[in-house]
Amino acid sequence: GAVVSQHPSRVICKSGTSVKIECRSLDFQATTMFWYRQFPKQSLMLMATSNEGSKATYEQGVEKDKFLINHASLTLSTLTVTSAHPEDSSFYICSAREGQNYEQYFGPGTRLTVT
Amino acid sequence: GNSVTQMEGPVTLSEEAFLTINCTYTATGYPSLFWYVQYPGEGLQLLLKATKADDKGSNKGFEATYRKETTSFHLEKGSVQVSDSAVYFCALKSQAGTALIFGKGTTLSVSS
Fold first, then answer.
1. Interface check A34 vs B, CB under 8 A
2. Which chain B residues contact residue A44 at CB under 8 A?
3. I want to staple B17 with a disulfide (CB 3.0 to 4.6 A). Which of A51, A107, B13, B70 is the partner?
């Protein structure tokens, strides 16, 4: 089946620094990638949707200048959390979809801790 | 707006017990409905899906039927195994939308 990887799996950073999370589709071309945030015992909340070569579409309430998303190729999307604060600590999950196929394939997630 | 509500967990069962995880949804039109499973340390995997009313999705012994009249998509399995221990998410995709809307997830723990 289709595989999506995320790197790193865990990251700890200091408040005020930026951290980049990578999401890769390993065996298919991901024309659309999604970024989710998951709080403990909460649902996955969609942050943004990105199409290869286009600017990401952010959900209401998500700061685009804080959560920078780049989808420069059909196999890679990155999420950069800028000027991180402790409240940004969370589990970030990406998913990818090939073409108009509605099935999304999910990465294993990245645990971000901001100290 | 569209939303998914699923039963709170955790659900703790003995091996071979019957499992039901309730899921109801709110959506306009005819959404597609999904169950995803997340095993410890892994990403979400599609377990089963149904795209229209009265469809039954099934996989690995799990079943769920798309009930338009009750706006439900309950997950069932007749005999759970220890290896079924995971977090289960109910989700929908609206007819017009591209993204999935998830419930909060239900943790299932099965003991031998």
1. yes
2. 44, 89, 100, 102
3. B13
**How many angstroms separate the CA atoms of A73 and B12, rounded?**
43
Rounded CA separation A114/A90 (Å): 9
Tally Cβ neighbours within 10 Å of residue A52: 16
pLDDT digits (tens, 9 = 90+) for A87-106: 999 999 999 998 776 688 99
| Residue A26 in tokens | 């390993």
Query: In sequence order, what are the residues at sequence separation of 6 or more whose Cβ sits closer than 8 angstroms to the Cβ of residue B84?
Result: B19, B77, B108, B110
* Nearest residue to A28 (alpha-carbon basis) of A7, A49, A3: A3
Please give the mean pLDDT across all residues of chain B: 93
Q: How far does A106 lie from chain B, in Å, by closest CA?
A: 5
Contact assignment for A43 to B42 by CB distance below 8 Å: no
